[in-house]
Each structure stands twice: as C-alpha cells, then as structure tokens.
Write a structure and sequence with these properties.
Order of helices and strands: HHEEHEHHHHHHHHHHHHEEEEHHEEEE
Keywords: Endoplasmic reticulum, Heme, Iron, Membrane, Metal-binding, Microsome, Monooxygenase, Oxidoreductase, Signal
Mean pLDDT: 92
Strand order of the largest sheet: 1-2-7-4-3
Radius of gyration: 24 Å
Structural class: alpha+beta
Low-confidence stretches: 4-27
Distance between the termini: 82 Å
Binding site for heme: 435
Helix content: 40-55%
Number of helices: 17
Largest sheet: 5 strands, mixed
Strand content: 5-15%
GO molecular function, one term: retinoic acid 4-hydroxylase activity
Cofactor: heme
Number of strands: 11
Signal peptide: 1-25
Length: 490
C-alpha cells in the first residue's frame, strides 16, 4: 500500500511539474487552448487534417495563437498579414528552422533543410549559387528540361492511349532533372535504380503525411524505440545516402577542378578550398545530406504537383480546352515549348498558379523558429520557439481569392484576360526559408505540362463531375488520390 501511495505522489508531482512548465512564461506567448499535462493540445486537433483545426482555432484566438505539441509551445501564424509580418518584414528573426524530430534524426544536423545558424546560411548560399551556375533559370538547364519532356512524351505514347496511372512516369521526369543537376546523369525509365528511388520517395511522402508522424514528432523520446512507420523513413534515408556516397566516391576519382560537372563536383571543390578552415562547414556529411535534401525535395514535390495537375485538368475539361487552344495559337504543334512562351500565355500561366494555389501542396510549410527573443504583436516569443506557418490560410484567403475552395484560373486573371500577380501566392513559402528550387520547379511545371497538352488529349475514365480531387492524406503534404487516364495523341 505504501508503494502505491509513493507512486501516486510521484505521478502527482510529475503532472504538476508538467503543468508548471507549460504555463511558465505562457503569459508572454499568444493565447491558445489550455494544454493537457504532457500531451499538450494533441487531443484538441484533428491530426488527419491539421489545417481545418487551425482554421477553427484562429476564429477563437485570432491570427496568432499558441499550441502545445507535447510539452513544447508552437506559435501559429494564420492569415496573410501575420505570415507576411513574420516571414518577410521580420525575415531574419523568423528564419530559424523549427523542431522536426524525425527529420533531425535523419539529417543529424547536416544539410540545407534542417540546419540553423551560420552553417545553414553558408550551405544555402553556396547551394543557391551553384544551382544558378548549373543553369537554374537559364537556357542550358531549360534545354535539359525540354529534352526530358521529350522522353516523357515518348513514354506516354507507349501507353497506346490505354488507361494509365501517370504517377511513375511523372516521377521519372522530375527525378531525372534533379539527377542531372546533382549527378550529371539521367536514368532510363525502366532502370531499376530509378524505380527504387521513386518507390522510396512515394512511400516517404505518404508516411510523412500520416497522423502517426505528427504524433511521433510530438513525443519522439517516448516513441523512438517502438515499431512504426518512422523506422521506414530512417531505413529509406540510409538507402539514399549510401547511393549518394557511392556517387561521391566516383566523382572524387574523376574530378577536374577546371571542368566541374554538377553539384557534387562544386561541393568537393569547395571542400578543398575550405579544408584549412577551423570552423569547417563543407564536409562529407553536409555534402551527402545536402544532395539528399535536393534529391528528395526536387523529385517528390514537383511530381506530386504534376500528378495533381492532370487530375484537375481531367476534372475541368473546359479549362484544358482553353489551355490547348492557347498552346495551338502561341506555339503550334511542332515547336517545343520554351520559357519565353510563358509571357505570351496568360491563361496557361494563370492555370499553373491556380493549380498550386488550389492543391496547397505543403499546407503548413516546414516548421520555423525565432532566432532571438522577439516582441511580435504585443506578445513576446522566446528564442527557439517553434513557429507553424499556415500557408493554407494565405493560399485560400477569401478576400484575395473569392470562393477559394473552387478551382478557378480567373483568380489570376484581370478583366482583360491578362495574367494577374498576387502577393498571396506562397506555395513555396516566403522569406529567408523560401524553397531553394522555386525557379527550377516553375520551369518544370510549365514545360512538362505544356508539352503534354501540346501532344495529347486527356481522356478521363469517368464523368468529370464524378472525379474526386480530395487528397487522401493531409499531414505534411496533400497527397492526391490515385487515378487513371488515357493519353490520346493529337
């Protein structure tokens, strides 16, 4: 009986300590729902659709509020004004990467996506400069994307207009573009290595978008040694990193400092220049993880957007018909689409923007954190506090985009049919942590989709009104439902 009393007292003390830790300093943070000891607000959230929960909470607590994932507070930014004020007006103060325990376990403090401080700044600056040197936004990389678009068209022709799931072939195209930048090689669409990569990227995206990962990231110490899909992510990352290591060894043997070929070559050269630096940031570990960051992000986000694009075009044949009419008028049937065409194609440009706005691919961005104690809207956010940015609240703003839940390219067209820019268009996030490959992604989306619509009529297997575009997962990313269509050559 005495043992039971001791256990009850210990448990009571632990619960009181948890409550004290959660409430200490809470008066400085924005308001929010009262957290429970240890588990925080997790039971008050729909982990299958966090965006919906954030929308409901913003109505009660305003555009800036606090949630507890486990025992750690997270400040939520909801709506364009709050997001702009933080990420753009106070960009430096909100530029740290917030806690993402699973990614931290995978990356171990290396790479581009999940590092902080001077290491992150130097590696990001180097990576951006190298991508530009390798042609991001220039004609030489454009020609590589055009070439890959031709391979994509040939693969689609081989389907012989039969029902076909485009997931794999779209992944091949986007993966080959980023491979040409990192490794200076592309894979045939039947290559087993490529097939293995795409299976891994697809699997990782589905796992990261599952409720389990939200729970894992809230209680990593408790769940770390238990079975679960987080272990699959770790196993997959080892496979990718081992492949990259093999490629690095090959590059070391064939490196010509006067003729760098790709991202790995440029990084190896930088390592040689910095070898006497006491605060070495360009290391093998950072090379492997940076290449892995670019490889995974550059493949899956673009291919998923392309997959969602075709689904929306099937759902809205009237939009597809107008795009194809513009392609016929501006480019014709024989000439390959190029980036210069985009400025003469306001409707296609509007459709691409509306696709990205509507699908809201990464609804809550990657977590941010503040770099110092900062006063924000009469609150004080302590240094290191996680910040969750609701991109959904910006991309689906009712004032900027009337009927935001409706797919409508007119959201990006003026009364004269000209393309209309919007400051609310933030699918790549904003500020210091904006997506590194935004320029490449925009190029791929335009050239791949324009080429497909130039060469094929898209035929749905069901009545367009019966097509459901609701994502099958809404965690880290919105994952489109599986579907098939027929690519009928024009």
């Amino acid at each position: 009986m005495d043992l039971v009393v001791v256990l009850v007292l210990c448990l009571s003390c632990w619960l009181l300590l948890s409550l004290w830790k959660q409430s200490s300093g809470k008066g400085k943070l924005p308001p929010g729902p009262t957290p429970l000891p240890f588990i925080g607000n997790i039971l008050q959230l729909d982990v299958k659709n966090l965006s919906k929960s954030l929308s409901n909470l913003s109505k009660a607590y305003g555009p800036v509020f606090t949630l507890y994932f486990g025992m750690k507070p997270t400040v939520v930014l909801y709506g364009y004004e709050a997001v702009k004020e933080a990420l753009i007006d106070l960009g430096e103060e909100f530029s740290a990467r917030g806690s993402f325990p699973l990614a931290e376990k995978v990356n171990k403090g290396h790479g581009i996506l999940f590092t902080n401080g001077n290491k992150w700044k130097e590696i990001r600056r180097f990576s951006l400069m190298t991508l530009r040197t390798l042609g991001m936004g220039k004609s030489d990389l454009e020609s590589r994307v055009q070439e890959e678009a031709c391979h994509l068209v040939e693969a689609l022709r081989k389907t012989k207009a039969l029902p076909y799931d485009p997931t794999f072939v779209l992944g091949c195209a986007s993966c080959n573009v980023i491979c040409s930048i990192i490794f200076q090689n592309r894979f045939d669409y039947t290559d087993q290595t490529l097939i293995g990569f795409l299976k891994i990227f697809n699997e990782n995206l589905k796992i990261l978008s599952s409720p389990w990962i939200q729970i894992y990231n809230s209680f990593p110490a408790l769940l770390d040694h238990l079975p679960g899909s987080h272990n699959t992510i770790l196993k997959n990352s080892v496979f990718i990193n081992n492949y990259i290591l093999e490629k690095i060894k090959e590059h070391q043997e064939s490196l010509e400092v006067n003729n760098p070929r790709d991202f790995i070559d440029y990084f190896l050269m930088k390592m040689g220049q910095e070898k006497d630096n006491d605060q070495l940031k360009f290391t093998y570990e950072n090379l492997v993880t940076s290449a892995s960051d670019l490889f995974g992000a550059g493949t899956e986000t673009t291919s998923t957007t392309l997959r969602y694009s075709l689904l929306l075009l099937l759902k809205h044949p009237e939009v597809t018909a107008k795009v194809q009419e513009e392609i016929e008028r501006v480019i014709g049937r024989c000439q390959s689409p190029c980036m210069q065409d985009r400025s003469r194609m306001p409707y296609m440009n509007a459709v691409l923007h509306e696709i990205q706005r509507y699908i809201d691919l990464i609804p809550n961005s990657l977590p941010h954190a503040v770099t110092r104690d900062i006063k924000f809207r009469n609150y004080v956010i302590p240094k290191g506090t996680n910040v969750l940015v609701s991109l959904t609240s910006v991309l689906h703003d009712e004032q900027e985009f009337p009927n935001p839940e409706v797919f409508d390219p007119a959201h990006f067209l003026d009364d004269n049919g000209n393309f209309k820019k919007s400051d609310y268009f933030m699918p790549f996030s904003a500020g210091k942590r904006i997506c590194l490959g935004e320029g490449l992604a925009r190029m791929e989306l335009f050239l791949f989709l324009t080429t497909i619509l130039q060469k094929f009529t898209l035929k749905s297997l069901v009545d367009p009104k019966d097509i459901d575009t609701t994502p099958i997962a809404s965690g880290f990313s919105h994952v489109p439902p599986p579907y098939q269509l027929c690519f009928i050559p024009i």
